[in-house]
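Work package 3, deliverable 3.1, input record:
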Amino acid sequence: MTVSDREPASERSDREPAVAVPPARLAADDEPGLDPVPAVPPAAPRTVPRRYGVRPGQVVALLFLAVIAVAALAPGLLSGADPLAADPLHALAPPSAQHWFGTDHLGRDVLSRVVHGAGYSLGIGAAAILFAAVLGTVLGALAGLSPRYVDEPLSRLFDVLASFPELLLAMLVISVTGPGAGNVILAIGLVQLPNYARVIRGQTFVVRRSGYVEQAVTLGLRRPTLVVRHVLPNILGPLPVLATIGMGTAIIATSGLSFLGMGPQPPDPEWGSMLAEARNYLRVAWWSVLFPGLFVTLTVVSLTAVGRRLQRRFEGRLP
Amino acid sequence: MSTLTLTRRRGLAAAGWIGPVVRRLGAGLVVLWVAATAAYVALLLVPGDTVDVLIADGVDTPQRRAQIITEWGLDRPIPHQYGDYLLRLLHGDLGRSYVLQRDVAEILSSQIWPTVRLALTAAAFGVVIALVLALTTAGRRSWTTGLAGFSELTAASIPPFLAGLLLLAVFSFTLGWFPVSGDRGFASLVLPALALGLQIAGALGQVLREGLERALEEPFAVTARSRGITEWRLVARHALRHALLPAVTLTGWFVGVLLGGAIVVEAVFGRPGLGQITLGAVTGKDMPVVMAVIMFAAAIYVTVSTLVDLAYLAIDPRLRRSR
């Protein structure tokens, strides 16, 4: 039984809807270590939790992410072939020693396209998360620090943004801006914004009521100094967890939008648009669907696994 | 128990109920209003003349332009136009698609059922798969638990359109068990619903498993075990109730996943429905339709989440206290 199970509804509602992604949503309640009175050690200390040991799954996930990161930053290291070089004579060739992942309908090397696609998928995802995290932190902290008449409309705005189905909201943005990588970043960033804003707002509430902030106020610290020096550094804790898991969601959303033709346009080797092109040849060339799909899925799986691990550590360290 | 206490109790209960219910309904209305406003702002933000935007790829004649200007009141100041727009929404008038030459409400109502059918079937698949996986493997320390956990993670991580493509490749092209596309009876519904339901199965399964495992460590589980009930009964009858509550919180999220995912999955399987309409509208910049779909999605979400909130009020009296 954790303490958070019994906490009053008012506090809970600040935290509960914090993250739209279910694994993160669990965070608040799933750790046994949330004792609010750290001064009193538990009578029978639990054996060292298994979660602090090294788990092979985590190692595999991190290794995979490292490979993907290399592919995104320096694709030339992993694949010598040109991702755009068409070779119609060898179109739709199955995997072979020369083309490990086979070739697509234009005879382009699928491996090379998958490798070069990592940059698009990860780049768009990371940029969207950066946008959402920065703007979300600013707005969330603003809401958390402001009087009610500022906080209330801002919180409502977060609620409304969070209440649209992700993909539909992104599509509304795209219908205004038109397709393209930059617009996908904007769309997904806006979709994810409320996750960050709500969590940061909740954190700000906690921090501003804390003893050290009250003492800083008593000492007569100027408000900007107080916010920048004392509040801001202490509300950013959950960001790495949110960003890691959010990155997975962003990559799924990016691939979905690209699949529908709203992301980077062909011939750019983005994973989603590769899948969109390959689906017409699904019957004859499974490899042109399987490999990009495998990389999207494994990337998201790894990000989520690592993110949840980070989350547990983070929650475990909470006072 | 006297009549007096009964009535007093009832009175108290009513007093505790009215405030939160009104507040939640009010919050729902605010969300709808902001959604309508956002859709309207989107319309204004689209580059180009609003008349051109509304016509999109439709027939462009001076008469039609004049008709659009009067219909949307485009010759009046913007706040006035916005007021007109809200009034028309209140009357259920969603505008007109000049591309498809039909009223938007008519288009939506004709295309909604295939999508609802798909979404409900997918939800059913997702819930059943998640329940079976979680109930059969939770709380057992063995490789099956790890495997089930990994399957859930994968199911939650695979984009629905990709799941659709893979299912097509295996079950339609290779095995030939299901039709490739279209909307002809239940057989054509199975694969799309599975593709869409996988994400729900994965996410819900993870939540259920965590909830079950936490519940199984609680004192009541020990008590129940000491009474000698079987492990299966403990999981299914006692722990499951505790695990279901956090899952119910996710209902709103599921609705979003289903609606958004349906659009992509319908595209993969070439099914008629809201997806086809939305996709056509977004690529063709058919703004009245895009706006209506957004409003529709917001309305569904608000309805479902308000119902969930009210259900919570019924379940947990502590939530009835006002903040």
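Residues 1-8 of chain B have pLDDT under 50 and may be disordered.
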